[in-house]
Amino acid sequence: DLSPSSFVLAGMPGLEAARFWLAFPLCSMYLVAIVGNGAVVFIVKTELSLHAPMYIFLCMLASIDLALSTCTVPRMLSLLWFDWREISFGACLLQMFLIHSLSAVESTVLLAMAWDRYMAICHPLQHATILTNPVMAKIGLAAVARGVLFFLPLPLLILRLSFCGSNVLSHSYCLHQDVMNLACTSTTVNVVYGLTAILLVMGLDALLIALSYFMIIKAVLQLSSRKELVKAFSTCVAHLCVVLAFYVPLIGLSVVHRFGKGLAPLVQVVMGDVYLLVPPLLNLIVYGARTKQIRRQIL
């Protein structure tokens, strides 16, 4: 058989008895992420005073989190509550494309936010003239285009593989590395392209974010006023928390896939779930709840 009609998603290996109850905290996290991020998008969109670069980027981030959660969590809940483990080949490829491309879009937006912080702190006079609304729209479109162009080839590369053995995945959703590992033909092209795309998008973004923070810290330490110093650091710490919440699980998941062959199946499942569930919640807490203007509007 060249390609299976469906794949079987992993549940909670070793925790089958508690599977039904584990779905409730997952469902609660999903509802909080949906309501909270939805509120952030609505408030930034309707409140004219929040049409500033920082809030527009925040709105973009919340929209991505909404999309990323919605393309994975309902499927995971149906698996845990109703034991619907089977996912069709086409649905699996679509989910794979959405997960990888939305992650790339989020990475680009985090880079744009780091650039926004750099401009606001190091070049405050030019900040408002450079980061205009048309520029923000172009950044948003560029982020989406970059995610689609780099990660559309992944499901297409899966289509050329032959599958003749097991069709059981090691996560509760479809990832390129996971599906690729089930193939019984050579996956060299998939490995090389997948790694190149990750390095050129997430790797490059992480490097540029680190560089912008190096410049920011250098500029902040030269500020004479203690009040300005505290203010600059507090905005940067919030963004750094969000950056770490995105990149640390992403790196952890990649490491588990590359070198974690001997690890318990549950570790892979949990790492995968953390990668998808933690950033939408943490972004909401760090930005939505900490940002005075948004908190005031929500209340």
Explain what you see.
Residues 36-287 form the G-protein coupled receptors family 1 profile domain. One of its GO terms (biological process) is adenylate cyclase-activating G protein-coupled receptor signaling pathway. One of its GO terms (molecular function) is G protein-coupled receptor activity. The chain is mainly alpha-helical. It has one domain (8-298): Rhodopsin 7-helix transmembrane proteins (Rhopdopsin 7-helix transmembrane proteins). 76% of the residues lie in helices and 2% in strands. It is built from 12 helices and 2 strands, in the order βαααβααααααααα. It has helices spanning 19-46, 53-70, 73-82, 89-122, 124-130, 133-151, 153-159, 176-180, 188-220, 226-259, 265-289, 292-298, and strands at residues 6-8, 86-88. A two-stranded antiparallel sheet has the order 1-2. Helix 1 (19-46) packs antiparallel against helix 2 and helix 1 (19-46) runs antiparallel to helix 3. The longest helix is centred in the middle third of the chain and has 34 residues, at 89-122. It is globular and about 65 Å long. It starts with 5 loop residues before the first strand and ends with a helix. The mean pLDDT is 86.
Number of domains: 1
Proportion in β-strands: under 5%
CATH architecture: Up-down Bundle
What is the CATH top level name?
Mainly Alpha
**What's the overall geometry?**
globular
What is the count of DSSP helices, taking H or I runs of 4+ residues?
Answer: 12
Largest β-sheet summary: 2 strands, antiparallel
Number of strands: 2
Overall helicity: over 70%
**Any idea what the CATH superfamily is called?**
Rhodopsin 7-helix transmembrane proteins
Q: How do the SSEs run, as a string of H and E?
A: EHHHEHHHHHHHHH
Radius of gyration: 20 Å
CATH fold call: Rhopdopsin 7-helix transmembrane proteins
Stretches with pLDDT under 50, minimum 5 residues: none
Structural class: mainly alpha
Domain G-protein coupled receptors family 1 profile: 36-287
Protein name: Olfactory receptor
Subcellular location: Cell membrane; Membrane
Keywords: Cell membrane, G-protein coupled receptor, Membrane, Olfaction, Receptor, Sensory transduction, Transducer, Transmembrane, Transmembrane helix
